[in-house]
Amino acid sequence: MSVSVLLVEDDEVIRKSVAMALERYGYHVAVAGDGLTGLELFRERRHDLLLLDVMLPGLDGIGLCRRIRESSTDPILMMSARGDALDVVSGLEAGADDYVVKPVDISVLVARMRSLLRRATFAPGPAGGEAPPSEPDGPAADGHRLLVFGDLSIDTGGLEVFRAGEPVALAPTELRLLLEFAAHPGIVLERQTLLRNVWDYGWDGDSRVVDLCVQRLRRKIGTERIETVRGFGYKLRR
Amino acid sequence: MGSWRSLRWKIALLVAVACCSIAFTVGVLVHGSTYDRSMNDGAAKAYTALDGALATERGSADGADGVDVAHVVYNPEEMPAELVRKAREDGQADLYDESRRYSPRMWAAQRLDDGALAAVSLDMTPDQLSRRALDRNMWKYSLATLAVIVPLSAVAAELPNRRLRRVARTARRIASGDLAARTGAGRRTGDEITEISASVDTMADSLQDRLLNEQRFTADVAHELRTPLMGLVTSAGLLPEGEATELVRDRVRVLRTLVEDLLEISRLDADAEQADIRPVPLGEVVAESVARTGLVARVTVAGKPVAATDPRRLDRIVANLMTNAHRHGVEQGHGHERATVEVTVGDGVVVVRDHGPGFPESLLADGPRRFRTGAAERGRGHGLGLTIALGQAQVIGATLTFANAADDGGAVATLRLPG
User: Fold this and answer.
1) I need a labelling partner for B287 at 20 to 30 A (CA). Which of A10, B213, B220, B373 fits?
2) Torsion, CA A59, CA A65, CA A67, CA A71, rounded to 10
3) How many structural domains is chain B composed of?
4) Separation CA B338–CA A133 (nearest Å)
5) Which domain holds residue B227?
6) Is 0.95 topped by the overall pTM?
7) Residue B156 domain-assigned (yes or no)
8) What's the ipTM?
9) φ, ψ for residue B398 (rounded to 5)?
10) Contacts of residue A231 in chain B, CB cutoff 8 Å?
């Protein structure tokens, strides 16, 4: 089954040409011309990836992203026509996993989408069918490795995260980031390393993407769990 | 302080000149009127003495009561010639005789009824001494007053000087690009210095407004171009392959680079850029940048240099230097064997060198200017690339220098990272 993408973009030419180009790459594309239509389409059926323009009539891309994040952890890629701090930072704060700046080559866009989808499919979601362990602090069961850091427990097999026994809903990038930290507990990870390992960026990655994703992750798993090492990066507290 | 041409010394000099001329005028007037008065007094005394002496001689015994009687001279030979002449003409005359160095004398002469002359002279030495003392005192006190007033006025001139210097400093800061600099003179009414300060502020305001408007315009134009450009880029990607398609795509690429460069310049102009400094392996980053440009270059890395810098901005600098070197050094180079771009990476230094005709004189002298590619042989290019490279270098605190090689005149761009 082909991957379905919801594209919300107000400029007709971009909407049509990006949709056509993505269809050539084998994606199934649903399109919306404004934020509210986009929100309706999002609610009607599930999409594997959301591609949102920042400037939209009615509900803008930032607001739309925030509304989607209220109920979903679907991967979101923002398209900004400005690329300045305000657009990028507010998009990432609203919960976007990554951003591209217009005009973007379709090949670059597809590369970003693939990287994002890899993170998303990495988490099998409910298909795994494994029940969450009743005792987060208990021993790993059924071959699943359970990593425990204070009140936080990560089921690396079922890819589920619990905080004080309560399941935590993480967006795919947040989950990948947490797993990256969990694989190296207590070790400082540079932003550059994280950009490469989680986002598949080379040296051209924007470290604000890491900073804002870490901020979102902290809000969900507890601020003190990830420590900032000024000038170097971040580390997960054991 | 500083130069002797400073306003403070000019004011002090002016004050000194003013004080001196007042002291001189008053001194001359006082000297003159004192002299006149003492002449009048002396002459009156001399006449009285002459009258007294003649009366005594006539009365023979009258005045012999011990009073000091002046000695009357009858022989004109003993009188000053001037006195004799005046007395013969007018019947009586007085004369102040300073012909001897000491003890000046006041003469009074009268023509007697028989036509002979009688004269007396009084010693004026005490009078002369007291006038000299007065002159000395006037000199002394004038100089003492000057000694106090001139330094005082120099100190007092320091205050307006300081305000003027602040205006000058502010103007210099504005000239060097700090458009937010203001003298802070405020709106209160005041002297001319306040006025010039306020004028400088107003000028800076309007300059800043105009520059900001211009920057905003460039940024807005570039932003507005982005959306249609994105449509164009993706649509061009959808066209069926062919020669015509390649032409369209090539132009779209050029247009896109131009818009991106304009946006980048407007961001650099707006000082909105912040470097994201982190330790990076310099050799790898530069090699990756060079590879991404898709242009051929020989990259040499000495050792394993690590630099604290912003790799994305470094990439922009290297890419722009590469593009420039390729455009001017390789495409315009003399022959195939020399047509290579060499990129040398050392400890905190990146050198991009080509073997073309080198940078034009105007660029070496004034640095790169947007939309100015210099001489025709510099070929195509809109001249934004080097401006961007320079701007990005400033953002990461690096210095970027342009020179021509001594041996073959090829262009050499040297980027020195800080630290």
Assistant:
1) B373
2) 150
3) 3
4) 69
5) 192-269
6) no
7) no
8) 0.75
9) -100, 165
10) 278
